[in-house]
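Why Oxygen sensor histidine kinase NreB? Reviewers of the renewal asked for a concrete example.
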Amino acid sequence: MARWDGTETAAGPAGDPGTADGEARWFRVLLHAGFFLLLGSSLTRFLMRHTGDGIAPWVVALSAVLAALYVAEPAIGDERRHRHLWLGACAAVWVALVLLAPSFAWCSIPLFYLGLRHLRPPAAGVLVGLLTVVSVTAQLRLAGRFEFDLLLAPPAVAAICVAVFVRMDEQTRRQRELIADLVRTRRELAATERREGTLAERQRLSMEIHDSLAQGLSSQRMLLQAADRTWRSDPATAHRHVRAAGEIAERNLTEARRFVHDLAPADLAGGGGLDEALRTLARRESTAGLAVRCHIEGVPPRRVPDRVQSALLRIAQGALANVREHAAARTAALTLTYLDDQVVLDVADDGRGFDPAAVRADGGVRGHGLPAIRTRTDQLGGTLTVESAPGEGTVLSAAVPLPAV
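Here is what the prediction returned.
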């Protein structure tokens, strides 16, 4: 359906409630009701004053034809040529009616709207001007003398109708553009959320793999290398290393299965909670050559959420993996401290240490360990502090707030 700017829309006929040409339904109903009210009142006025007039049957017939044409608007379809023929027929019948009975000039108001609606601006302006001239002529004929107000009133009414239509059409166009922008924005937002979700899931998977499977594989490699070195000189020790590597492989398999099903870490599955999981981790790391002590200070003021327990255990695993692979330390200590509003995990070692400022300067690209720990802490709304210096060991502290009761 044509709009005032001449563009086409994918709308149905004007009488269709599902049309998308922009007018509000109430306005269309009011316009249609006004047309038939004007047509009926003009016909009634004519018949009351010209009962025995010979042109009365013609006026009645033309009124019926105009009403039928108006009602037939939904059936004309979207073909431009059909719309133009239909509009021309309506205008011709109306002109004939006005020539026979000038009181029908008031029916031009709905025809203004039809012309503006179905024609491009130049043609619509010509039609509105023609209808206005016919209306002025009809009113002057009806008055029987020249009256200045009759010369100005129809053009004023036409100008008001055009202004109202153009204003409504402009608002409709802006609303349509706004809706299109909103739909496009929603699609872009959904695409962005999908991308962010994909990246977050990739990051989660990389951290889980680093903190579970990769650590286990690293421990196995170290144990097997140790077994290979002592295989001939100390078979018992070598056998102990191989057995420990087998136990780590079994735990890795359990972790992998739980990892696939997105379950909590295996060390938390036994029901002993975070305290027992950290003690188990310390004992396991001690069998791999790094002496790890575990200290628990205080008691939890409230139940620690599973998400926090899982993250703190992964932080401890990642920190010990860094100690084992990079620090060349002999001992390490895990300290879990429960405070009133937070829980603090400290991981200290006596290794070679490093410069934290240098790590921040290169973007933390020393592998997945420290960035993964920082990400986990940030996701819980906590803070991560790393204190270290070359030759002085490292202390990593992750403080995570506990949710209020």
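The first strand starts at residue 291 and ends at 297. This is the kind of structural detail the renewal will allow us to pursue systematically.
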